[in-house]
Amino acid sequence: MSPGNGVAIIGAGVVGTALAFRLAERGEAVTLFDTGTPGELGPSRGNAGHIAASDIFPLSHPGIAVEALGMLAKRDGPLKIDSRYLPTLAPWLAIFVRTGSGKRFEAATRAISILCDGTVEATERLFADAGIADRFRRVPALYIYDTQRSLDASRAGWQRKAAAGHASTVIGRDELRDREPALADRFAGAVLSHDWGQVSDPKAVVDGLFEAARGHGAVFCQTRVEAIAPSEAGIAVRTEGSDRAFSRVLVAAGIRSRDFAAQLGENLPVTAERGYNLTYPSPAIAVNHPVVFADHGIVSTTLGPGLRIGGWADYAGPDAPFRPAYHDRIARIAQRFFPRLDPRDAIRWAGKRPSMPDSTPVLSRSTADPRLFYATGHGHYGLTWSARTAEIMMALMDGDEAAAAPFSIRRFNR
After folding, report:
1. Tell me, what CATH number does 305's domain have?
2. Considering the domain boundaries, does residue 281 fall inside one?
3. Number of domains in the chain
4. CA–CA dist 190, 192 (Å, integer)
5. CA–CA distance from 369 to each of 30, 58, 117, 237, 247 (Å)?
6. What is the pLDDT of residues 211-270, one digit of tens each?
7. Beta strand extents in 223-361 (DSSP E only)
8. Is the pTM of this model over 0.90?
9. 219 in any annotated domain
10. Can you give the residue range of the structural domain that contains 182?
11. Is 247 within a domain?
12. Keyword annotations for this protein (predicted)?
């Protein structure tokens, strides 16, 4: 094996392709590895298409344990946990619950805010530089609430977001009906979150970033990476029967990143949070905003392929089969929310989000070898945070350790 040169990126989702483009753009020799074609196998292909800049809080929050029990008790609740997986998930859940209060909640909020602050502008820069500016537009999002009580309960959070620079406006039933006439007349009101955007098609974004990276000389190897092995000659990337050495390796492999970290003796507590959605290619209705149904864990977006409706958080392990019944339930919910929706020819999709227990990705230099880096664990926000992730990782790889300090893997390896 010859001495290593160039940068290997393991994982060709939206984060991996954004990094491949930024590194290749500045002249690095980049090799991108993935089992499938870019954006094909992970959650990058089927996400909601939102750039959710105002979502600065971790998913865990004060009272989350009691709230989660209520969700689990509801057949159509947004949270599902397979009881057979619970013993394996328990350490992850313990960190998740602890994140919901006190200093841990504040630390997670500060870290997430670094990614959210300026993420709309960073996305515009990234897309413009990659020649795909037409695949993004700024548009406010609607957070819709079933009852006045739930709307009122959300106000403190929205006020804190506003203080952090993410403005919003509360609107009543009449304005909500004017903005989204296809909605059922069952909601108490909404919050219009102004610091948002959306893409035309998440898969088309990955395709565009990949092509831009290739235009700067990046190459793609469609193969399964079995192992990463540091040596004096470089970092060996072991694929089916062969080793190639690189001067640096960046792991952006979603839930598989945990396996690579474990090979190196590092703890990376990323787990598979499965999500489900339906895309209606001819919905027969217009939905004008990205919509978050705040009391249901459901979102909707009008994308190039059609109206996409889905969400939920299902924890059953990375190898557990997906549950078609969940698609059926989401379809029934979609029909309640949009009574005139044409449900024919709906395309079903399910994916595994790489989720961290503190909702904060790991953007970090490895503790095992300084030539190895991680950019993983983005959960629901891989698309939202991809541009800022690329900026932070570029700074880190140039030696600016402070830029990525809040995202270090060391927080799980002390």
Report:
1. 3.30.9.10
2. yes
3. 1
4. 6
5. 19, 29, 30, 14, 11
6. 999 999 999 999 999 999 998 889 999 998 789 999 999 999 999 999 999 999 999 999
7. 227-231, 234-239, 242-246, 248-251, 271-280, 291-293, 298-303, 306-315, 347-355
8. yes
9. no
10. 65-101+136-197+272-354
11. no
12. Oxidoreductase
